[in-house]
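[Automated response] Your request has been received and processed.

Submitted sequence:
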Amino acid sequence: MGSTRRRFVKLAALAGPGLAMAPQGVLAAAKPMRLLILGGTGFIGPHQVRYALARGHKVTLFNRGRQPETWPGEVEELIGDRNTGDLEALQGREWDVCVDNPTTLPFWVRDAARVLSGKVGQYIFISTISVYAANDKPANETAATAPYEGKDAMAETQATLGASNYGLYGPLKAVSEREASARFPGMTTIIRPGLIAGPGDETDRFTYWPVRVARGGEVLAPGDGADPVQFIDARDLAEWTIRMAEARAFGVFNATGPAGALTMKAMLATIAATTKSDARFTWVPAPFLDAHQVSAWSDLPVWVPGQGDTAGFARRDIGRALTFRPLETTTTDTLAWFNTLPDARRAKLKAGLTPDRETALLAQWRSSRAG
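Generated structure:
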């Protein structure tokens, strides 16, 4: 595959509800920009591209050529591979802003800087809310980040991390943040999203709940309903990122929502009302779930206990100028997207309890109470 191959994709057919369509009613930006988006074909990248096009910006993507997309406008696509250091397609080019979406590995930032230093006016690094060292109390952007305790962060690759890298994800993102700030001094914007939701999410970490609640019946719900939850629609995150580029806003920013406090009970009630579901929620305490090896965040996504070591995880300070679409909209659009997927994909969610396990756990919970 030639790393300098460039191709242009113009107006094409829609890929699915709420996914390929350009945002409606978007005003043009006061000053068009040249945007370079590293990794624009994943989850948030396509939303960034469509919003940027609607605002009148010129967009260039750089990736390995996977996941061909269709765009509602002209997009330049450059091909390369950051795993192997193939950044030839970026050589000798200049952009107003670079948005780095997929990076966890610090050497990706280092290598990008070797090519882009002095060639971009702003470097936006998409990090994660998981960079914080502690989750036991609410934190703003000044809180300490998790230390990397391996031998050499710059030597970490996808091969060394393997399939299970959750324990290193936050620390390596934190190292990547510091590398970005050092390599692009005075022009770095670090955005730390929380759980990202909405159409296009292949993790099912939010999708599980609209799908499960819409199915109806007795639903196992975690805790007592009072635990806080935070997440952000991918489209809100993408649009805000482009506005941060337009504003030349530098610094570190938490990016999660909603604007006000939201509990697990309120979230599920809203999803039930939106989907017109007959779901009945059975609230099962965290100690019972823990005793039965039911994991917060994965078996019961979005949720983590609002006490103890995770008391602050869903209470991050988000006092920034984000805007949020209603939970009802995220729920409706997520389900619409999910229902366009192949039957085999929809039959096996990537997060959440399987129906059989949920049924068994509910039976065990009722039995424990009867005893």
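Summary generated for your ticket: The radius of gyration is 21 Å. Residues 1-21 have pLDDT under 50 and may be disordered.
If you did not submit this request, please reply to this message.
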